[in-house]
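Cont'd.
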Amino acid sequence: AQKITQTQPGMFVQEKEAVTLDCTYDTSDPSYGLFWYKQPSSGEMIFLIYQGSYDQQNATEGRYSLNFQKARKSANLVISASQLGDSAMYFCAMREEVIQGAQKLVFGQGTRLTINP
Amino acid sequence: EPEVTQTPSHQVTQMGQEVILHCVPISNHLYFYWYRQILGQKVEFLVSFYNNEISEKSEIFDDQFSVERPDGSNFTLKIRSTKLEDSAMYFCASSVSGATNEKLFFGSGTQLSVL
């Protein structure tokens, strides 16, 4: 079964508009963490935002916010006032089984976001 | 900002050859990881390393794979006898701790092509 599902292979958005990237997850563990990473064309994976399963409030980091709906098992990334530099691949990931403190991330397929001028 | 450095950025090898991928994690980090991404597929966990030993590994990480921290700064992934299906982008990552909300810092990756 898919642990992390990103249903949007590609998104095209006008500059300065807000954009929502979808992510749903599947776990029976009550304790988990959700991450979003950005992968620009240069290849590196850049951490954007984190949401813990017990966090009461939605996470925010600058222009990034996470719309966390626990009952629906969704953790959508919202980017406000999009910029040309936001064009990249975006991955949703879930921390699974912290064994001996190790971070084992399970990734979704990713969404390629293109910002048009 | 400190970063995880991976070399080489591209590696081409013949099937059956050994390859070593190099990584320099961020200096004060204690946890190290390798992930890989086959073209068009998801990023997959390979192995995590802490306190000079493997803390967890995936099914992909079979006897052909090994990791090593030969000195205080480098973290290597060795593939003993490469197969065509090992062709992928390999990412090294590190984190300060194993805390639940700890972010992983990733390198830019090594694109491995097995011919």
